[in-house]
Amino acid sequence: GMSAVLTFPLAKSELFGDLEPVEQDDGPEPIVPIAYSDHFVDVMNYFRAILKKSEYSARALALTEEVIKINPANYTGWLFRRECLKELKEDLQKELEFVDEISEVSSKNYQLWHHRRVIVTHIGKVGSELEATTKALLKDPKNYHVWAHRQWVLRTFGVYENELKFVDALLKKDIRNNSAWNQRYFVVKNTSGFTKPVLQREIAYTYEAIRKAPNNLSPWNYLRGLISQKDFDMIDAITKGAADVFRSDRKCAECLSFLVDIALKFPSISRLKTASKMCHDLQTDLCKIRHKYWEYQNGKVKEMLKKLEDEAKQTK
Amino acid sequence: TILPFGFGAADIRSCLKILGDDLSKVDKKAIIRSLKLLQRENGCFRCVTSEEDDMRFMYCACVISDMLDDWTGIDIPKAVEYIVESQAFDGGIGLRIGAEGHGGTTYCAVASLVLMNKVHELKDMEGLTRWCVYAQGKGFVGRPNKPADSCYSFWIGSTMKMLGIYHLTDINGNREFNLRCQTPWGGFGKHPNVHPDPLHTYFGICGLSMMGLDSELLPIDPRWGITLRAKGGVENEQNEAKSGEVEAK
Fold it and tell me: What is the rounded distance in angstroms from the CA atom of residue B221 to the CA atom of residue B227?
């Protein structure tokens, strides 16, 4: 399509000479009125005029670009832009370049990534979506919007082949990147599933990461994800890993916390007795900031321990 | 014209309540009818029929239904199923199924379940409890290994209030952090020593209110994120101020 060139102020431009600008109606006595710049008022006055006419034209498309630039979160701007792109049958690959441009200044933006998703859906091919999200994540490794978009790309186009490698690369940069750990779970779940050999591999991988930074919550949570798989029965493997960590650092609160969770999930009298001692140590010494939680956990441990001991007595 | 629905409807209704309006001039039936159009097959809600669906709009739909006391616009079992599926392996709840557990979306999910009376449907309540407790160092974080941010004292604090586990928080540490987020210009920023903004000011104060240590702060309803006074209408202000803790249904 032909692109229109805007000159500012629009109020003085020939291109919009036929249009009556529509001012924002804040009512007779606005409370806390925003101090908009003249440029902002000028652009939005003409955008409102275009909206009123539902005009999907080259000048409207050009105007949405400016609307988005002055407020990248303006969802009406993005939505109307899509209507123009559709009507004018614009080049959607070029549109992705526009999204890249805005992403440089506004990547923590729901509207931008949703726009990108709609454009890519219309293109119907994965194109360079992995590259674009990789680039964004290397700059901002925890950007929630980018991760959400990347998950959509993976699910939609089934391009999981290199994702574990990508996750691994991010974890090498920052072993504490919780988004990357979440992505790991997402990939395994949507590819091989948590089969026994995969579980073995993941347990080993996770304890390797824990060795590097034992008080890092993310891998311990990942282990919790592993033990919650249906019919999980590799209790010895998972407990051995934790015991190794405990041997090298008896004050590792995360390790004890996890062992308490294991005892509650796979209860035995001996595990629960040890867990109760661990709760006490966590409460009084190793993790005092959460002492109420450890009291709560210990309550559950003791209740379960009593239940098992009563059952054992009855069977005698 | 294009009418953005989700946030707008919920925010407008909240504002009307805060200003003491009784919502009698609101076309309730039209709004409830719109909710039906906005719910997807997967149970989640869009903000506009053509737009994205996620946990934010699930919450908007539930709060709207609760405010208007009309749940006929929502397929509750489907909505609940979506929320339950969105709980992550670490116990937190994400923006969508598969997404990372996050303080804001966990609030949206739990508040929605509480409003629908379906909190018991969650598969991993112990995980959610742990996730919430671990979100607090002094202040609260939105995700593990991220810096504390004053607004999460509301998002996660409210979640814990609604779940009946608020007593597991370190109230003094929480309060100390929020107060350090106050700025010389007034208001609260997300961290200490950053500029204030309305969002962190609003939620920082809501967070402080829930702690119950500042008597000049009115009690709030964690499900709606507004004061009990606003919820009840201005006339009920005196009665509401006497009631203390909010009971989740």
Answer: 6
B110: Cβ contacts below 8 Å, ≥ 6 apart: B93, B119, B128, B159, B162, B163
Contacts of B76 (CB under 8 A, 6+ apart): B116, B118
- Using the beta-carbon criterion (under 8 Å), do B145 and A225 form an inter-chain contact? no
Q: Which of B1, B42, B100, B190 has the most A C-beta neighbours within 10 Å, making it the best mutation to test the interface with A?
A: B100
B248: its two tokens: 């989740």
Q: Does residue B147 have a cis bond before it (omega within 30 degrees)?
A: no
What digits encode the pLDDT tens for the residues A190-206?
Answer: 999 999 999 999 999 99
Q: Which residues of B25-35 are buried (b: 16+ CB within 10 A; e: fewer)?
A: ebebeebbebb
Q: Is the peptide bond before A72 cis (omega within 30 degrees of 0)?
A: no
Q: Which residue has the tokens 């006391």?
A: B69
8 Å CB contact between B57 and B6: yes
Active site residues of A: 108
Q: How far is A301 from chain B (nearest CA, A)?
A: 13
CA-closest candidate to residue A188, choices A175, A199, A177: A199
Q: Please, which residues 260-279 of chain A have a Cβ atom closer than 8 Å to chain B?
A: 261, 264
Residues linked to residue B140 through DSSP beta bridges, in sequence order:
B136
Whether the complex's predicted ipTM surpasses the cut of 0.85: yes
- For residues A108 and A145, the answer to whether their CB atoms sit within 8 Å is yes
**B143-179 confidence digits (pLDDT tens):** 999 999 999 999 999 999 999 999 999 999 999 999 9
Distance CA A190, CA B73 (A): 33
